Amino acid sequence: MNRENVQASINIMQRVIDRGSNFNLSYWASGGALESCKSEESYHKCGMSACWGGWVAVAPEWPGGVDEGGIPVIENCYGEGLGGVEALAYWLDVDYDVVNAIAGIGSDGAETYSQVRNLKDVTPQMVIAKLEGLLDE
pTM value? Predict the structure, then answer.
């Protein structure tokens, strides 16, 4: 695990909280002009809503980019392009199931956020708690 990048991800979520930015774990990014909103600041100003991965994709800490759907993209050490869960797993240096759990994807995500009825009810604070749990391992 890349502890520095996990901490960076926590910091990104904390900025979402501090700014009162829109957060919705049920999609990567939505609500604005994705083609013109390609940075964390522009997402906030445009009123964009994004999930954990969507906010990471436009944060200054993210070494990759963001595609037209608001999905994080990055190249691995072999120059291969990775997107979405694969990109986040590579950056954090964790297994896909860990990213799926944090992102609320599939059965891993359903178990992680079992206390809510819908992914839109997951808060950035809940995501931070999951990320901090990784640092405690």
Answer: 0.90
Structure tokens at 102: 């944090």
Model confidence pLDDT, tens digit, residues 26-75: 887 776 655 666 778 877 777 778 889 989 999 999 999 988 778 899 99
**Token match 């906030």: residue?**
44
- Choose among 2, 8, 23, 1: nearest CA to 125: 23
Other CB atoms within 10 A of residue 24 CB? 18
Amino acid symbol at 108? D
CB neighbour class for 65 (10 Å; exposed up to 12, middle 13-18, buried from 19): middle
84: DSSP letter: T
Residue 106's pLDDT band (boundaries 50, 70, 90)?
A: confident
Which has the closest alpha carbon to 53: 34, 32, 14, 27? 27
Domain ranges of the chain: 3-132
Distance from C-alpha of 66 to C-alpha of 55, rounded to nearest angstrom: 10
User: Under the phi-then-psi rule, with left for phi > 0, alpha for psi from -120 to 50, and beta for the rest, what region is 62?
Assistant: beta
